[in-house]
Each structure stands twice: as structure tokens, then as C-alpha cells.
Amino acid sequence: MMRVIFGALKEFNDDAMLMARQMGAEGIHFNTPPIPGEKTWDLEGLNWLKAYAARFDLRLEAIENVPIRFYDKVMLGLPGRDEQIANYQNIIRNMGKAGIPILGHHFCPNWAWRTTLKATGRGGANVAAYDKARESDGNAYVYPYITDAEFPTREALWENYLYFMKAVLPVAEASGVRLMAHPSDPPLPEVDGKARILVSMEDFQRADAATSSDAWAINLCLGCFSQIGGEAKVLEAIRYWGERKKIALVHFRDVQGCGEKFQECFLGEGNYNPAKVLLALKQAGYDGCIMDDHVPYTVNATRWGHLGRAHETGYIQGMLKMLDFWQDSVSEAGETNA
Questions:
Q1: Tens digits of per-residue pLDDT, 69-79?
Q2: Reduced to 3 states, what is the DSSP secondary structure of residue 215?
Q3: pLDDT tens, position by position, 249-276
Q4: Number of neighbouring beta carbons within 10 Å of residue 91
Q5: Does residue 7 sit in helix, strand or coil?
Q6: Are 259 and 227 in contact (CB under 8 A)?
Q7: Residue of 265, 280, 282, 191 lying closest to 223 (CA atoms)
Q8: Closest C-alpha to 52, from 101, 93, 109, 9
Q9: pTM value?
């Protein structure tokens, strides 16, 4: 069944873990967890992370992203990439041994971009926003992304990605680990003068056809697909990838605006109707994890956004309860009429 988890944790945060359990989640998700390793993650570190989650009665459902230093040469196509690929293969094998089923990745050397983190949302909440006309202001996200290298062309970036996938997918298949791809964010062919891939339905279809593996899947970031084309594109992605059982995880967030100018927002005030989207996921046969992502920063917000995440998670949980109730009611009505 679809289930709500908490996540986007980049540190060991006991308060966040406790809140996840108190809010009714049974699973947790880490994004680039700070476990030891300069080039790779060993089994001991991954087992520790899984045990840390278990201390709070939470399953470690997925890890999204390794540090960029683990595979920067892979993305840029530089000497040393084969060593980095071997180290990544080691991570996959160790995740399989630890019983952690999903490893997420992006393939975006200049990472996610926002031109401000302090746009004004509902009631004065701070939200992240992107305006291509303001790229010269720099990236408002603080992250050790690549800045001092020659970047590949779009086609060269594709070649580098498929070289990477060809090497790691057989290991993932043998290890029982799914490798899920996140859209580049913003999903534009170029950001700050640097080429990007995985920015459209066509890009994901190209990757799917080229990899041809059940171990390759999508991190269905509804916010990114909403940025691409609003509700229509979100529903198209759900139908297409859901029917093919290619959705590994859902980031349930939204934006106002599309393309080259948008800002993040609370659920229910963005481009799509969250209830319609959740129903579409159900109809497409999706039965995996759903999590909040990129929440607005409310009054008294912490760095992780405890209040915003509690609100978004409760919103999704309420919709799921209503969806189950509605479907049971329809089923009972059908049996009565019969």
C-alpha cells in the first residue's frame, strides 16, 4: 500500500526521527547521510545507519544521493571515473547486504538551483524560488557542487550517464537494489550556462530505453514535473511510469509557476490538485513510499522544517485516509446494488 514516510535528512537528528514516529510514519529516508567515507560507504556505516533508524522503530526505506565527490569525475567524464564507478558499485553491494532497497541519484554537476530561499509564501512563510533572469545572483543553495571544471555538452553528459548506468545497473540487479533517478532541478536544458539532462518526459524515456533494467527507476518528484508542465505533466508522468512499475519513490510537493520562473508553496495552492494526483497514483497501481519535500519555512521553523513537514505529512495522510474510505464506500455501494 502507499505509505507516508519522513525524509530528506542530511544529518543524524533524533528529534526528527522521534517526530517521524510520533506523526505515524514507519519509514525514513536520508539524503546524503554523513556516514564515514571519503570515496565510498562501507557495510559497517550502512548497517549503523539502518540500526539508527531501527532505534526509533523506523525502516530505512531509501538513501538519496551520495556526496558529489564520490562521482564528480563520472559526471564530467574525467580520468579517474572508473575508480569512482568501482567505489559506487561497492556502495550498491553493501546496500544490498544491509537490506536497504533504494539508492537515489541525480546527474547534475551544478546541482539544484534556486535564486532565492526567501520568497514570500502564504502568510509570509519563506519559500524557495527560481527565476532564470536572476541566475547572475548565484545559487542560493549552499552545497559543495562543482564550480571549477569544464562542463560537458548535453550530449556528452548523456554519454557519461549511460556509461555510468551500464556499469552499475548489473551490480544493482544482482544486489536487489533499485537505482532511482531524480530530475535535474530546475528541469531546464541549461542552468547557469551548464547543460542538463533528465529534464523532460522524453529524457526519462530515453534513459529507460537505454538502460532497459528493472533496477532503474524514477524518483517521481512531483514538484519537478509540475515545474515542467503543471498538473497535466504530473498526471502524464504518473500514468506512464506508474503503469510500467518504474516509480521507486514519490516526492509530494508542488510549485506556483513553471519553466523559467516558479516558487515553491504549501500543498493545495500550487499547480496541481493534490487529491487528484493521489488518486492518479492509486489508479496507476503505485504501492510505494510518499514523502514531503522542500517544505515552506513557517514561523518558528527549524533548519529541517519540522512544522512544515508535520503539516505536509498530515495533509497527505488525511488524503490517503479519505481515499481509502471513498474506495471502500464505492465498493460497498456496488455490492449493495448488485
A1: 999 999 999 99
A2: coil
A3: 999 999 999 999 999 999 999 999 999 9
A4: 27
A5: strand
A6: yes
A7: 265
A8: 9
A9: 0.95
